[in-house]
Write a structure and sequence with these properties.
The protein is mostly helical. The protein has 19 helices and no strands.
């Protein structure tokens, strides 16, 4: 925990040596108080004193999670200020302020339920809160303050509902990242739905917002419904499919139509088959999806009846990482807009299939339970299987969060040109190579972890080679001699992978994106 915290502090200070402004004091104060409160959360988890059931075999992860959204907002603000895009500069300030307030709320919650009340930690949290609120008072307009408070309110309600319904699925830090992101997306969708201006906004952005909110609302609806019904019967399964069609065609489609001012299905088909390159990419991705399904069926066929407790090895699970890299790299090189939309569709399908598995919806629910049980690891301790969804999110978030409006030529200067590749580098290459080489050839373990020195060094080396290959094959990438910063970024994130107990598929790409955008 101490080394993980040290690495996060180094990343925070590295970012703010490049981008130093009034929010830098807030970030440093937030990091210091989150470091202290993190131990209170860990104590609550060990003693079973937390309000909800969180994922075991991991620390609270409050510090690394607390800094992600504020740092993303700060670097986005700086990039958009340099490009002269005032609207998105203000949006970056709102993102940073919202992230700080959400992290502060989670800290106050931990301090409030710790008995006896930790006086020193309370004082630190009060000082950090005062600095953040003072800075927000002098940085945000009234409408922006209301927006930040709206996100906080949504976060509180979502936390109470989802953490109760999904015990042991998240650590406090993961809950902050996932539920904080969901709260922000929901608030943005409501805000844009109430202020629709024809021709204003990118349809792909609206598609992301509606798809994410739609599948989450679908899950909440069926969770409440199946409290009163047995979800495993054919009648319930038919009702599930019927209501999915009704909600999709009767709520989600009209909602999307209102935002993009055209038929969503016709727009999607026209978008997907607009050019010959897109057709080739779709055929190629279909082949890779079939290959991934083939791996699942083949591994399950190998599982004999006398070894039902057999689990897939680390190397076997990393097959999917290689397939995802092979999926994303051509999309990033040839058509990022298509990759953006395809990733949204894939996320919606993944979450829908998880509902089918979780609720045992016929005819595929029980089959999915059997097939996916082979690939479970210690992080899937709750009722949901989330690791494959986290892998997709880790690869997609750098593409979705890339500030396109602040990059007129479609790419950022210097190391920022690698931002869309953050997921590929951190998870697809770095994490995969570290796991494979560490588990097969690693001998020298990092103190206090199961990760090896050889695995981390090989991961850094592999990511540097990957950057060189990106430079060769993607002509839009121009690093402008920022090689030392890229090496430092990759090294810090690889070391964080060795020491963190959080979901690395989600955390590492975001930190690499922050470093590259800075």
């Amino acid at each position: 925990v101490l080394v993980e915290s040290l690495l996060v502090f180094i990343i925070v200070l590295s970012v703010h040596t490049v981008v130093w402004d009034r929010f830098s004091w807030c970030s440093v104060a937030l990091a210091v108080q989150a470091f202290y409160v993190q131990f209170k959360w860990d104590q609550l988890l060990q003693l079973g004193g937390a309000v909800f059931q969180f994922r075991g075999a991991a620390n609270s992860g409050l510090l690394p999670a607390s800094m992600v959204i504020p740092l993303l907002g700060v670097v986005m603000k700086e990039r958009c200020r340099a490009a002269g895009i005032v609207y998105f500069e203000r949006f970056g300030i709102v993102v940073a302020s919202t992230g700080m307030l959400l992290a502060l709320f989670l800290s106050v919650l931990a301090v409030g339920i710790t008995k006896p009340v930790p006086t020193n930690t309370c004082i630190l949290t009060g000082i950090a809160g005062s600095i953040i609120i003072y800075t927000m008072k002098h940085s945000l307009t009234v409408s922006e303050v209301i927006e930040v408070l709206e996100v906080l309110l949504i976060f509180v309600y979502l936390s109470m509902i989802l953490l109760y319904l999904l015990p042991r699925c998240f650590t406090p830090g993961e809950a902050l990242l996932v539920l904080g992101g969901l709260s922000f997306v929901l608030n943005q969708l409501i805000k844009r739905s109430l202020n629709v201006i024809e021709g204003r906004g990118d349809p792909t952005d609206f598609f992301l917002l509606v798809a994410v909110v739609g599948v989450v609302l679908l899950g909440l609806f069926f969770t409440v419904l199946f409290i009163f019904l047995d979800s495993g019967t054919w009648i319930s399964s038919m009702f599930f499919h019927m209501m999915t069609a009704v909600l999709g065609l009767g709520v989600i489609m009209p909602w999307l139509y209102r935002l993009i001012q055209r038929n969503p299905l016709f727009w999607l088909l026209q978008f997907l088959f607009q050019t010959q390159t897109r057709l080739y990419l779709l055929v190629y991705w279909t082949f890779l999806a079939a290959s991934a399904c083939g791996v699942v069926f083949y591994q399950n066929a190998k599982r004999s009846s006398e070894s039902k407790k057999h689990q897939a090895s680390t190397i076997t699970r990393k097959y999917f990482h290689f397939i995802v890299v092979a999926t994303y790299v051509p999309g990033l090189i040839y058509d990022r807009q298509l990759l953006y939309v395809a990733a949204v569709l894939c996320l919606a399908v993944f979450i829908f299939l998880e509902y089918v598995r979780y609720f045992r919806i016929k005819p595929f629910g029980q089959t999915l339970r059997h097939l996916l049980s082979l690939f479970l690891d210690e992080r899937d301790s709750g009722p949901l299987i989330l690791t494959h969804i986290y892998l997709l999110l880790g690869m997609s978030l750098p593409v979705w969060l890339f500030p396109r409006s602040c990059a007129p030529k479609g790419t950022l200067p210097g190391a920022g040109a690698l931002v869309p590749y953050s997921g590929v580098l951190a998870v697809g290459v770095g994490d995969t190579i570290a796991s494979v080489f560490g588990s097969t050839m690693g001998e020298i373990k990092w103190p206090g972890t199961k990760k090896t020195f050889e695995g981390t060094m090989t991961a850094i080396f592999a990511q540097i080679i990957a950057v060189a290959l990106i430079l060769i094959f993607d002509s839009s990438v121009n690093l402008n001699s920022s090689y030392a910063w890229i090496l430092a970024s990759v090294s810090l994130v690889s070391l964080l992978e060795a020491y963190t107990t959080q979901i690395d598929n989600l955390l590492l790409p975001l930190y690499l994106q922050i470093m590259l955008m800075a």
